[in-house]
Amino acid sequence: MSMAGNLRRVTSLGKGGRLRRVARLARRRPRVDLSHPARSPLGSSVVNCVTYRDGVRIPESVGLVDAVERVRSRRDGFVWLGLHEPTDEEFAGIAELFDLHPLAVEDAVEAHQRPKLERYGETLFAVFKTVCYVEHEELTATSEVVTTGEIMVFTGRDFVVTVRHGRHGSLGPLREELESDPRQLAKGPSAVLHAVADHVVDDFLTVIDAVQADVDNVETAVFAEDGARLDPGRIYQLKRELLELKRAVVPLGRPLEELATRPIRVVDPEIQAYFRDVSDHLARATEQIAAFDELLNSILQAHLAQVTVAQNEDMRKITAWAAIVAVPTMVCGVYGMNFDHMPELGWRYGYGLVLGVIAAACVTLYRGFRRNGWL
């Protein structure tokens, strides 16, 4: 029976013996480590389910319910269950097994939540926004710069359930890194919670470094020789993408502060010091985003000022040429009125003199405008 089939059976049955009977069916098929793919190729939302004891992964192929029962009977170790975009039906049995609060379950399934930390009895529910930089050759008015996802973490005394939404932010490498440090992992589920938070904040800093390159490119383009011709849509698009990044980073400050300073039963006191380090990194990310926002505002204002100056220069040039053209227009207009008594019409040198006066006046005006910077 496939993992998807087992999950559906767990979902459809109640507690007790029937759950245990279904879990035993899962052992007929060897467990596959699906940490790295975004979605399980077996067709279910389960990415991985592993038991840890004294910080060491237990290489036993047992079902989820049996693993939880063994951990609780021995009161040693914990179970880490990883899910990717589960449905209501897929998550129902898991929520029942771990006694998860219905409101937290709803948030974990629906996604699109704000970063937060909530306590439900002996269980912590944390929501993290993940971010990923979208590579692009050139920033345009429609370029996608930042894409976001979510990781929800249920943390109890003997279990961790991670629920991931989005195509990025795989926790497979994070799991391998944790398993290489059994001493840290031996601190329990709160070590996994810290590792997830640290992983998310490190991604923030990576994306911010990439966004800084886009900000620098826009700044260079604005202050280039033809900066007034820059499409302002590029600046607005970068500000919109920066706002999306800000929505992921800034709200996380309060949850991390709570994890770092307030005593919480399921959080090992030694882990709180690590949360303080993550909080410091988040503060750095928040400051950089605020600086980018202010810089983009300044760049936008500078661009608008350049456009205004360019328009003023164009208007001055138009006005100067209109003044120069007005001289021959006025003179020719006077001699084009066709009066019978105009003394200059009968003068032999009148035509040449008029042309000379027009040329001299135009040259004088042109030199004056050039000297004043209008042309």
State the main characteristics.
12 helices; 7-stranded mixed beta sheet; alpha+beta
Walk me through what this model shows:
This protein is 57% helix and 13% strand. With 375 residues, it is of the alpha+beta class. The protein has a seven-stranded mixed β-sheet, with helices on both faces. The longest helix is centred in the last third of the chain and has 66 residues, at 269-334.
Q: What is the helix tally?
A: 12
Note the beta-strand portion: 5-15%
- Label the structural class: alpha+beta
The CA-CA distance between the termini, in Å, is 83 Å
- Unreliable spans: 1-43
| Strands in their spatial order, largest beta sheet | 2-1-3-7-6-5-4
The average pLDDT is 82
Helix content: 55-70%
Reported for the largest beta sheet, the result is: 7 strands, mixed
3D shape = rod-shaped
What is the radius of gyration computed over CA atoms, rounded to a whole number of angstroms?
Answer: 35 Å
Order of helices and strands: HHEEHEHHEEEEHHHHHHH
Task: Please report the total strand number as a whole number.
Answer: 7
Write the layout of secondary structure elements.
Layout: H1 3-12, H2 17-26, E1 46-53, E2 56-57, H3 64-74, E3 78-84, H4 88-98, H5 102-110, E4 116-120, E5 123-133, E6 146-155, E7 159-165, H6 172-179, H7 182-185, H8 189-222, H9 232-249, H10 253-261, H11 269-334, H12 350-371
Parallel strand pairs: 3-7
Antiparallel strand pairs: 1-2, 1-3, 4-5, 5-6, 6-7
Helix pairs in contact: 1-2, 1-4, 4-5, 8-9, 8-11, 9-11, 10-11, 11-12
